[in-house]
Amino acid sequence: MTEQENQPASIPMWVCGDCGNTEPTKTIICPICNSQNIDIKQSKGYGKIVASTIIRRPSADSLFDEAFCLCVVRMDEQVLISGHYYECRLIEAGTSVRVLGNKHQVPIFTDTLAN
Amino acid sequence: MNEVVISGVGSTKFGKHDGVTAIELATDASLQAIVESELDMNKIGAIYLGNFVSGFLTGQEVLAGLLADKLGISGVPATKVEGACASGGIAFKHACMAVLSGQCEAALAVGVEKMTHAKTSKVTQALNCALDHEADAASGLTYPGLFALVWQAHASLYGTSRKDVSEVIKKNRSNGLKNPLASMGKIVTAEDIEASPMIADPLRLYDCCPISDGSAAVVVTRADFAQNNKIAPTKIKASVQVSGRAKLAAHTNLCGFETTENAAKQAFENAGVKPADIDVVELHDCFSIAEIVDSEDMGFMSKGHGGGWVSEGRTQINGDLPINPSGGLEAKGHPVGATGLGQIYEVVHQLRGTHPNQVKNARIGMTHNLGGTGVSCTVNILAAE
Ligand SMILES: [Zn+2]
């Protein structure tokens, strides 16, 4: 990868301008304080693994037809994001990761040390 | 909520019912409940039917109206309700509200599902309808995957082990052996569990409740309607339904479900009892790890101690707090729309003293029915007269 490609891919977050709650999907109202003062911000793309599993039998209606590692990541901005780890293996909770890109709109993570 | 009571319950066996329709199953369970309640059919003033995937898997909808027609109850509101796996509990809550509001003097809550005729891949697709598609379905999340993540998070925070979780399976499968309504009663060993296929690490086949057909029904009446019945009615001390955050990533952490915490807290307040007052619980063990997190979320022990309780035998039938003496979803099966009412059926029999796995001196019982990724939840507290 070039240095430019090695930068974490950004992912959008919907941040409440009143209470600071951050949502990982599009919203026009904050589900915590009901404010409609919502800003779209970009995550810096770094976080830590909360949990991971290997989905061995993806749902037939999923866009993924082979086994993959599904992970939940607490981004540095504190929002939880679900996505895939770039390799099909379990990854320990607490591991530092960054967004590598996305596939079918799903964030793909790698550990911060990987190229 | 002492003005309304349960005056009759009915249930089919949960499991495989080849060649029988959902409506036939619901009719069977409903008739049992109505006969037990000693009510004339024309006293049933409302029907609430819980169902989740009939349209998707069988092509048949309007189940509530079809059931009313089958039973010969005409001219009353017959309503299907849906909240994924909590559909049955929601039907019960609405039957309670119909009687409490004075809309009618008796209401029938019935839950039903017909699933075993469909391929597993089709059932997985059907169950995935309960995911937040905008947030989670695209990632390929499945329900086994969700509970595998819950287990991994619980393990990393509290050290919950394969051994702890296997104790849930061993207990519930063993409890199911004596329950004639349970399809999967069995003595299983840790070795059996660890040899079963991995579905979503660390969750194996034995950790998953079986795909099932079945129906359960409950008649709710004004207390004065049932005071002279041959079978003493069961008091409804609290019936709570709450909604919660839908998407996986919206949960505070993955070690439990805020909807369960909210519903249980409200139920204890409404009933005026504490967790320590509960004699028996039927809760939503859709996956083995779920029993551990549910029992913590309901407030029976502090977070992180659910695994220890089951490993020490404290949730056995003769333990400090018997959990799922019916065998739970693990051993009874999980005909989705019927499950919440099946739990009420089991607790009512415990409170009557007529359960095949009777908990000694059971006076107050609790049920817990969880839908989707925690998007809906119902909790009931019931008491013997
Ligand atoms: Zn807000």
Give an overview of the whole structure.
Chain A has 115 residues and is an all-beta fold. Chain A is 0% helix and 45% strand. Chain A has one domain. Chain A has no helices and eight strands. A five-stranded mixed β-barrel of chain A has the order 4-5-6-8-7. In chain A, strands 2-1-3 form a three-stranded antiparallel β-sheet, with no helix packed on it. In chain A, a hairpin with a 2-residue loop joins strand 7 (96-103) and strand 8. The N and C termini of chain A lie close together (7 Å). Chain B has 385 residues and is of the alpha/beta class. In chain B, a hairpin with a 2-residue loop joins strand 5 and strand 6. A nine-stranded mixed β-sheet of chain B has the order 3-2-4-7-1-8-11-10-9, with helices on both faces. Chain B is globular. The model of chain B has no long low-confidence stretch (mean pLDDT 96). The complex binds zinc ion.
CATH topology of the largest domain in chain B: Peroxisomal Thiolase, Chain A, domain 1
User: Kindly state the mean pLDDT of chain B as a whole number?
Assistant: 96
What is Rg of chain B? 19 Å
Q: By helix and strand content of chain B, what is the structural category? A: alpha/beta
Shape of chain B: globular
What structural class do the secondary elements of chain A suggest? mainly beta
Please give the share of residues in helix of chain B.
25-40%
Largest sheet of chain B: 9 strands, mixed
| Order of strands across the main sheet of chain B | 3-2-4-7-1-8-11-10-9
CATH class of the largest domain in chain B: Alpha Beta
Give the total of beta strands of chain A.
Answer: 8
**Counting H and I runs of at least 4 residues, what is the number of helices of chain A?**
0
For the biggest sheet of chain A, the summary is: 5 strands, mixed, barrel
What overall form of chain A do the CA principal axes indicate? globular
Count of structural domains of chain B: 2
